[in-house]
Write a structure and sequence with these properties.
single chain, 148 residues, mainly beta, Immunoglobulin-like, five-stranded antiparallel beta sheet
Length: 148
């Protein structure tokens, strides 16, 4: 009887969680909410990474997306993403030129953000600080932009 109660309790928790875990090899969607815009000009660019070596330094990302800014927020949805470990980077492409504008010592001139709102110290954020596990049908992330 106790075993049945525990199983029922676990089933209820999974149903109430809204995003039940899937078996290994599953796929899902990432819903990325970006907040902290200072203006609605331009667009937001998003990249999804799955390893520390390429994070923020190459075009070796898993997926990318972009979206408009409305009322100083944006939402980008990445569909059909395999379950795994990832990190997200975003930037506000204020002039819509398709690239992150940088200045002296490659410091971004446009607002940026990463998953877990990871911040860099004397350089860009580290993958280990921005990483998260994706194992559900849908995962919502909120990223707060920062200007450097």
């Amino acid at each position: 009887m106790i075993r049945v109660t525990k199983l029922l309790g676990a089933a209820v928790l999974v149903l109430l969680s809204g995003s039940p875990p899937l078996a290994d090899g599953g796929r899902g969607r990432l819903v990325i909410e970006i907040v902290g815009f200072q203006s609605s000009s331009g667009s937001v660019k998003v990249a999804l990474w799955n390893n520390a070596k390429s994070f923020l330094v190459s075009d070796d990302y898993v997926a990318r997306g972009e979206g408009p800014i409305a009322e100083l927020t944006a939402r980008v949805i990445l569909e059909d993403i395999p379950h795994g470990e990832y990190a997200v980077s975003v930037f506000h492409d204020e002039n819509d030129n398709g690239k992150l504008d940088t200045g002296f010592m490659r410091i971004p001139k446009e607002p940026i953000g990463t998953s877990n709102n990871a911040r860099g110290r004397f350089g860009p954020p580290k993958y280990r600080d921005a990483r998260f596990d994706f194992k559900t049908v849908e995962l919502a992330l909120t990223i707060d932009l920062q200007s450097l």
